[in-house]
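Quick one - first record:
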Amino acid sequence: MPRTAVITLAAVATFAAVGLQQQASAQTIAYDHRSTVLGDHLAGASELVRANGQFLKDEADAAETWTRVTAASDQIQYNRATYRNDVKRMETEVREQKAGANRAKQQAEANAELAAALKLYESVQRGAGAWPTALTQARYAGSVATVSSLIRNWSPQHPSSDVYRSALATELGVLKARVTADRSLDFASRVDAVRAIKQLHQLAMMSPSEFPHQWEQRQFAMK
């Protein structure tokens, strides 16, 4: 091969090699450039995903916390409502117990007053007349005698009962007014006398059906 041809081929080969090298370098540079942009993009996307994930986690934690707070608040409100209801219920029970105790006390007192009135009535029926001390004084002898006579002739079951009962109530009212106005009596004596008069007046105002059955039987036995 001529020397000129050899030189020419060598030059061509050299230029070809240089061109390939430059192309490879350009591709490498271009690849590196594209790789950096993609990496940044992916890195940014990854950060965004992580940030979004953290946000969602924070939101979930916040929601869970809020749920616990709401549940705790609801429990507190429920406990308060239960406490208020319990307090109201106990107050109602206490009031009812007090009312029941008062009714029982009043009934017991009424029964005691009625028993005392019946006892005095029976004593007068027998002619003994267990009157309080104040009513045994001479100035009350006329009124006490009238009351005693009415009581001895009055029977709740008799057809003339209403007549005697009305007369007895009137005479007892007059006697009570006299005793109440009598300041010569000491307080205790006046109270005892007025109580006895009230008891008999209560007895006089009772209808036949209100008298205790046992007392009615005793009255028939006495008659």
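second record:
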Amino acid sequence: MSLATPQTSETDLIMHELVGKGSFGAVFKGIDQRTNQVVAIKIIDLEKAQDDIDDIQKEILILSQCDSPFITKYHGSYLKDSKLCIVMEFLGGGSALDLMKAGPFEETHIAIILRDVLKGLDYLHDELKLHRDIKAANIMLSENGDVKLADFGVAGQLSASISKRNTFTGTPFWMAPEVINRSSYDFKADIWSLGITAIELAKGRPPNAAVNPMKVLKMIVDSNPPQLDGEFGKPFKAFVDICLNKDPQHRQSAKELLRHAFIKKAKRNYLLVDLIDRYSKWKSESAENVTTNYEDATLSTVSSLPDWNMTLREEDEVCEVIKPDGPEDVDGIRNCLNSILGGLKDDNAEVRGAFEAAEGACPGFIDIFVRKLVGKLQPTIGDRKLNQILGHIKTGR
């Protein structure tokens, strides 16, 4: 694994408490002794993240190329045994998703957040970069209310000769129709995700949040775009409608949306400090107030922290049938899952229906789902136990 990064070493840092989970590992708060600056240190076990190394490299590369006050700042990275440590700007205000746990946002707050996200997107798009995973969980705030985009594990790079992409990447509820359809797409896919995020910020969750994510993929393609209903102002509703036009050619760019009436009325960032203070008070009174020292952190403590929203990454080609190693391979996998689905009781019909809908919308999804499941289980329980489980499934026991 070769990375051209600023010179950073373990001796430069003092590691403090565990503060959360990122897309690939645990995140700790720390101090950079060279500058006395508070930093975030993301620690990734490369032995357990073999399938994700390309995405990790991509995130580091994208962040190292960015220089914007609206993008999380990258300070450097270093290797310690099998652990990769990525040092980034510490954003102590939490994510927008965190802040919503303490209660809904007012339009005033939403306008500020969306304005700064648009400024971040405008910068990225000018640099021919796509974020591809815009959602509240990936919008971070500093303790002073500064808003920044984070989590670039699935970001994409365009070029002068390649102006569109066609990979299936993102988080289902926020994905644009053209991404799901595997059509060519560009920066406008980020604008759709921003529109869904606007509804998420207003309502506390994205549209169709109660529906199985794989079923939502088909709904996004086949149904009319979501609308912001309820007692919200006309400019806010109009902003959402512009973002959620199913024809990407009729969606405005980030630069154009920065001139929208709803965004132009956005106030100064210090008003977001009220949300941060409210969340801090809520967290101190709840069971989510988890702090763990670096030396004491274990897999169990990391796993118990609130997880960020599931993102489908570029290798999860759920709309493309992957050729098997041999003819018996796919048949065995498909038979295993069909055995599971066939044994579901009536009260689990919705689960079965969701799998069938996902397979119908994206042929090959079931095969890839089981491959991923087997791949995750194998290192944990071993080949022998895994074969026993698969044997029980095949025989219906």
